[in-house]
Design goal:
Layout lengths: L14 H7 L22 E2 L4 E3 L6 H17 L2 E5 L5 H15 L3 H4 L12 E4 L13 E8 L1 H7 L10 H26 L6 H5 L6 E9 L11 E4 L5 E6 L5 E5 L4 E5 L6 E5 L1 H6 L9 E3 L7 E9 L5 E2 L17 E2 H10 L17
Parallel strand pairs: 1-10, 2-3
Antiparallel strand pairs: 3-11, 4-5, 5-6, 6-13, 7-12, 8-11, 8-13, 9-10, 9-12, 14-15
Keywords: Iron, Metal-binding, Oxidoreductase
InterPro entries: DIOX_N, IPNS-like_FE2OG_OXY, IPNS-like_sf, Oxoglu/Fe-dep_dioxygenase_dom, Plant_2OG-oxidoreductases
Family: Belongs to the iron/ascorbate-dependent oxidoreductase family.
Length: about 350
């Protein structure tokens, strides 16, 4: 059963239809010259770390993996994983239902449109912010999948088309939850903290999971717009699956240089969000990133976010604070942080919780 009502403001126009009907990008999507992409979608960098999880159950290999993850988190805030346990079958089925949904007629997709002024859940085209003056070259669908109490409430509002959508999303959500619990544990260990530290600070089994489906159609002028503008993720950890078409680019802070992340077959891309940046007291990076589009290929991505529960108290981990490493950020609840991160008013939302006099 679809959610009642449709909010036209969140679906001002179908980006997929624009891609098929227009030979130019409408003004609403055009970035100012200083904000346009400088690197094409497939000029891939070999510098973004790729980490094998093979042998993770052995003490020596786990030590290697923890060390590699720690280095990647400090230097980049992003890494790709291979030799993980997520099956090719569920990855392929998730991409199939993603493409199947976005290929539905617009009138079917808008049955699931998000509501203006509510938490961004549901289908949208261009943006899920009704007051956006600039639109992204994408269509999207946001699901809240965990904790179980949220899934039980929202499951019946998930699309019934294409066939198997709800069942596949449930299986995918559970699979990603297991993987991200493992990854959060490895990040915790790399900081010298207990394995379950980050997960528990974020609410344990009450921590939240969102799954975002993105559809980036071919673009007639990919040098004038972005599929998704510059931002950091406001949660703890993000895991990205993509369909083999590049587009994700990350910024290396020291040089303010953008690097294109290669879509390695079978790999999953992991990036840190603002909450781990703050918890680590700035040792680890919440990486700034955006998505570029292209004129020849449609890109799909499925993005899973591990976020703290709303009432979780966030801030620098006391175990990492010392006289030589004083806190840089104030404490706050994740519920307090949500509007800061969601507003995307600055390149680095976590600057809003920086203590007076502290520097990055």
């Amino acid at each position: 059963m679809a959610p009642p009502g449709v909010t036209p403001e969140l679906v001002p126009i179908s980006v997929a239809k624009l891609a098929s009907d227009f030979s130019h990008v409408p003004e609403k999507f055009v970035l100012a010259k200083g904000g346009r992409p400088l690197t094409v979608f497939d000029d891939y960098s070999k510098e973004v770390p790729v980490i094998s999880l093979k042998g993770i159950d052995s003490e020596s290999e786990r030590s290697r993996i923890v060390a590699e993850i720690g280095h990647a988190c400090a230097e980049w805030g992003i890494f790709q994983i291979i030799d993980h346990d997520v099956s090719t079958d569920i990855l392929n089925r998730m991409l199939e239902i993603t493409m199947g949904f976005f290929n539905l007629p617009l009138e079917e997709k808008t049955k699931y449109a998000g509501k203006a002024g509510s938490f961004p859940v549901g289908y949208a085209s261009g943006s899920h912010r009704p007051d956006d003056n600039l639109l992204d070259w994408r269509e999207l669908f946001v699901h809240r999948c965990l904790p179980e109490s949220i899934r039980e409430t929202e499951y019946e509002t998930w699309p019934e088309k294409p066939d198997g959508y709800r069942k596949t999303l449930t299986e995918y959500s559970d699979t990603m939850d297991r993987l991200m619990t493992l990854l959060l544990g490895l990040v915790s260990e790399s900081l010298g903290l207990p394995t379950n530290y980050i997960k528990n600070v974020g609410g344990g089994e009450q921590s939240e999971q969102k799954v975002l489906l993105n559809y980036y159609p071919q673009c007639p002028q990919p040098d004038r717009t972005l599929g998704l503008r510059d931002h950091t993720d406001y949660g703890s950890l993000t895991v990205l699956q993509q369909n083999g078409v590049g587009g994700l680019q990350v910024c290396k802070e020291e040089t303010d240089t953008w690097f294109a992340v290669e879509p390695i077959p079978g790999a999953l891309t992991c990036n840190l969000g603002d909450q781990i940046h703050v918890l680590s007291n700035g040792k680890y990076r919440s990486v700034e990133h955006h998505v570029v589009v292209n004129s020849n290929h449609t890109r799909l991505s499925v993005v899973t976010f591990a976020n703290p529960s709303r009432k979780s108290l966030m801030g620098p981990a006391p175990e990492l604070i010392s006289e030589t490493n004083p806190p840089k950020y104030r404490n706050y609840t994740f519920e307090e942080y949500l509007p800061i991160g969601f507003a995307m008013k600055t390149r680095k939302a976590y600057d809003a919780v920086l203590l007076e006099g502290a520097t990055e």
